[in-house]
Design goal:
By secondary structure, the chain is of the alpha/beta class. It has one domain (12-265): Alpha-Beta Barrel (TIM Barrel). Helices cover 34% and strands 18% of the residues. It is built from eight helices and ten strands. The chain has helices at 21-31, 59-72, 91-98, 125-130, 133-149, 174-187, 209-217, 238-248, and strands spanning 35-41, 77-85, 105-109, 112-114, 117-118, 155-156, 190-194, 222-225, 252-257, 260-265. The strands form three sheets. A six-stranded parallel beta sheet has the order 1-2-3-6-7-8. Helix 1 (21-31) runs parallel beside helix 2 (59-72) and helix 5 (133-149) runs parallel beside helix 6 (174-187). The longest helix has 17 residues, at 133-149. Bound molecules: zinc ion (2 copies) and fe (iii) ion (2 copies). One zinc ion (ZN) binds at residues 83, 109, 157-158, 227.
Length: 267
């Protein structure tokens, strides 16, 4: 199998990942990838926003690490991406980030649903327990829909991240998913198939098979990501992810370069 590019991997700059881009690249080459993309957690307007992302002053170092990986592994295409947190009001900040480097793509991710509640943070389980899951899922998908419509991102990361800790609503969420997927289709933004969910409590790829079926109906395009936080996670479960995409009827994936998209057949 010829692997689609793995566009979601982190670096130690975010304080919760290990291995340099060159190490991720070496692992990708060993697995037979022809392209990867680094996408570490973006800086925020305040460096004390939280403890799981790079500081603004780390951006130069981040780009240099990617350049070093390219120099060490010239036979692999290594893209410069970023996993950018979408929060309404940060649009101008994100545009500013976009103008600072020659990015290949931005993954738009929602982790914060309100205030300082980052719903995938194990330290926030107490917050989950205080809330109604449907209310959290609704807030999450409202933000995700805004992210899709913002025009700031090439692809949207781990679209049903809200299932991570298995706080599932009793209510039917199909309408939330459809509104988000319509925004993706209207704005021609891709949806990431992210295998990290298999390594979390939910034990399921983000997004779920039924969600992906809806995405296919909306003719949304896809990207792939392992969300590797260690070199050993590069390409994790990609055979499952590609198999799921093909079973669902997807025939192509999106390749990026300089924030331009190209569709590549899944093989
Ligand atoms: Zn992370
Ligand atoms: Fe994320
Ligand atoms: Fe990530
Ligand atoms: Zn992520």
């Amino acid at each position: 199998m010829k692997w689609p590019s793995d566009y979601h991997m982190h670096t130690p700059l975010c304080h919760h990942a290990v291995g340099e881009p060159a190490d991720y690249a070496a692992q990708a080459l060993a697995l037979g990838f022809s392209e990867i993309g680094m996408s570490d957690h973006s800086p925020m307007p305040r460096d004390d926003w939280d403890d799981w992302r790079m500081a603004q002053s780390d951006l130069v170092d981040y780009a240099a690490k990617v350049s070093a990986a390219r120099a060490a592994h010239p036979s692999l295409s290594i893209l410069l991406g970023l996993e950018v947190d979408f929060i309404p009001g940060l649009e101008e900040w994100i545009k500013g980030l976009a103008s600072r480097f020659d990015w290949d793509y931005f993954i738009g991710s929602v982790h914060y649903v309100s205030g300082d509640f980052d719903l995938d943070n194990p330290k926030k389980l107490s917050e989950w327990k205080k809330r109604d899951p449907f209310e959290v899922w609704s807030l999450y998908f409202q933000r995700l829909t805004q992210a899709a419509s913002s025009g700031l991102f090439e692809t949207i990361g781990h679209a049903d991240l809200c299932k991570k800790f298995c706080f599932y609503p009793k209510e039917d969420c199909t309408a939330l998913f459809n509104t988000f997927l319509e925004a993706l289709a209207d704005c021609d933004v891709a949806l990431e198939i992210n295998t990290a969910g298999l390594r979390k409590e939910c034990r399921e790829i983000y997004p779920s098979p039924s969600f992906l079926k809806l995405a296919r109906k909306h003719r949304v395009h896809i990207t792939f990501g392992s969300d590797a936080h260690a070199p050993s996670e590069v390409g994790a479960n990609f055979s499952d992810a590609v198999g799921l995409a093909q079973e669902t009827g997807f025939t192509h994936w999106c390749r990026f370069k300089g924030r331009q998209r190209e569709l590549v057949p899944l093989s």
